Amino acid sequence: MDNTIVATHDTHAEEHHHSLPQLRHHFETEEQQREAGTFGMWLFLLTEIMFFGGLFFAYLLYRNWYNPAFVAASNQLSIPMGTVNTAILITSGFFMALAVWAAEVRKQSLLVMFLILTTVFGCAFLGVKYFEYKEKWEKHHIPGASFDVSEFINPPVSAKTGKPIEEPLSPDMARKTQIFFVLYFAMTGMHALHMIIGIVLLFWLIARARKGDFSSGYVAPIENFGLYWHFVDIVWIFLFPLLYLINRHPGT
Amino acid sequence: MSATSSTIVNLPDQRTATIPKKNYITAEHGLLSWVLTGDHKRIAMLYLISITFFFFIGGAFAGLIRLELLTPQPDLVASDTYNKLFSMHGIVMVFLFLVPSVPATLGNFLIPIMIGAKDLAFPKINLLSWYLYLVGGVLTLGALVMGGVDTGWTFTTPLSTHYLNTHVITAGLAIFVAGFSSIFTGLNFIVTIHRMRAPGMTWFRMPLFVWANYAASILMVLGTPVLAITLVLVVLERTIHIGVFDPQLGGDPLLFQHLFWFYSHPAVYIMILPGMGVMSEVISTFSRKRVFGYTAVAFSSVAIAVFGFFVWEHHMFIMGVSNYSALVFSLLTMLVAVPSAIKVFNWAFTLQKGSITFETPMLYAFAFIGLFTIGGLTGVFLASLGLDIHLTETYFIVAHFHYVMVGGMLMAFLGGVHFWWPKMTGRMYPESISKLSAIVSFIGFNLTFMPQFILGYLGMPRRYHAYPAEYQVLNVLSTAGATVLGVGFLMPLIYLAWSLKYGAIAGNNPWQATGLEWQIQSPPLTENFIETPIMDHEAYDYEWLAHKTEQEVTTVG
Description:
The structure holds two protein chains of two kinds. Chain A is mainly α. Chain A has a single domain, classed as Four Helix Bundle (Hemerythrin (Met), subunit A) (Up-down Bundle), CATH 1.20.120. Chain A is 72% helix and 0% strand. Chain A has nine helices and no strands. Chain A has helices at 2-12, 30-65, 67-74, 79-104, 108-138, 150-153, 171-175, 177-210, 220-245. By secondary structure, chain B is an all-alpha fold. Chain B has a single domain, classed as Cytochrome C Oxidase, Chain A, CATH 1.20.210. Helix content of chain B is 68%, strand content 0%. Chain B has 18 helices and no strands. Chains A and B meet through helix 2 and helix 8 of A and helix 8, helix 9 and helix 10 of B.
């Protein structure tokens, strides 16, 4: 039933303003459908903010309580890797923004290309994250039975100054570094999970874009996915300073 | 008794009346047409069946609890079993009955019709939310069959993470999934109310039922994700001991309380607000008057939603929180009483000089106003710090929240189901037996929970299956009341099922009510309206209705 409308639609799409085949029966107009979709997406992102909010709240609380442990533990994170990853993710978001534009101007091949680039940079982010996680694994900084605090109690001595590179922590405080790593893995892990879900959705969108689903003025899925993808970027924009950057070397 | 003055019921001539051949029930046939439907009315009916099922499961637990408490000795069940009984009672009733009760059934059915839309904005997400609810329900039943949970419905850490060997993870996941069902329902309502209103349906022409559900939806959307992440952390704590809530590793069990109650206190308003919406509709219809102070009632719903987010710490007054923050939260908690009182007073003024009739929904409404007021006022007792320390963890608390949740919400739910039953099914429920069941429920309810206020004040702690012998008289009264209450809840199940086949044909507008839902056929068409309605009058405009009926008579005649 819908297919017949699609067939006649392409030829007349430019001249006529008759409704899209994707207009669902319960909406009066395309505009209403589009507004409802976008509004729904924003609300969903609001729930996501609240979802991450619990973790951010826990992070701020424990950072306040166990500041020395959090400072020492955050020094274990690699700023170069974090910076590179931030750049990769912003680039991915940039291509997503271009993809939305390409859909709006109905350029099918550009849309597909930008979606693929978005996916590639998204995967690159996860790749870098893999190496970061691997390093934590090797250093026994994964919370659990094999978690090792010795590095925080007896930090290695710097060859240049002859002093420890890090302020040594009392054993009691050193154990609190585990809380930092729990939150680090929970927050970045939850973020990575959102990336993975996003990438799966990207594959689906690419397949649909190649069929030309979004080349005739129906751009709502691309737009709404764009909102989701930018949201995931923004979560990282908060995670990066909180986990990697704030107050790295007080005193020393 | 003269029939003309004592009732407003206006049924079509039963000898000639028929149910419209074409309606949402007969539109398609077969089980698949129901379980794959996108029609908000069918999804509402699916919800109605599922939540009724879980209500009676939860009720069975309550029955066993009351039976154990008949005697001071622990003689019916072992203490572990008793812990599981009250935990499962709480989990099932809160997450699988009260939270979805009015929004997912009546709200789902009525909100699109009341604002003149053909469906909710996202029919597929609406169906998805019912499936998520079912998955949550099946997981809960799974936890039950495997041996149950005994944390209480609050999953208090470190009890839930370190000390118990029951199915906390399964139950936690069940609530996690059911939570997303509630998030999607709320999201759907908000988008629908913002974007799908018919021409002329301004915000202040919407029925107050819609306003109340809108306020509840805000709470669902903002609160439930916090519960979700909290349960994830509990599950991780239990499985891989991450330490976020474990003091031995530097974590803080009180953090769990903050996160849990950040959702679970607003959840109380998720449960009660839609019930208040039902009340506004019912009271207006059976007093033949516009709701007094429409704007105040509408805004008080939103005010309850906003204040509701800033009171959660009153669950933790005895847990060593700072005295200063306790003072602030005590004050904020008392402030919630203000918008609640605005509603109750406005309902009272609506009744004043109205042409009141006493059909079943109105009886439930009177029960609601009285019982909710008692529940709300005892809430103010508990908000005051000194009294809270005396009464926390006693039966006073149990009685307080049952007055709000059962005396308030359940009465509102039953009132709403009776009120819109003719619209949903096209047939009337039997009036006299349903009046009887409303009265039986009211008596049973008070007999069950009034003694618990006294028990709590005397110091009987909750969550124990044995108690000193001097508390027995009041406990026997309470158990007797629970039996009466059980009868009061079973009766509607039977006569409503009976009415599906034998009830009188209701016609479009048996109550002569003003809402858009009453201007269309019963049961409605799948697309609700033949053409998009245009709203050219205020809500609860009985003169408009009288004028409209007059015109119909003259044009037809």
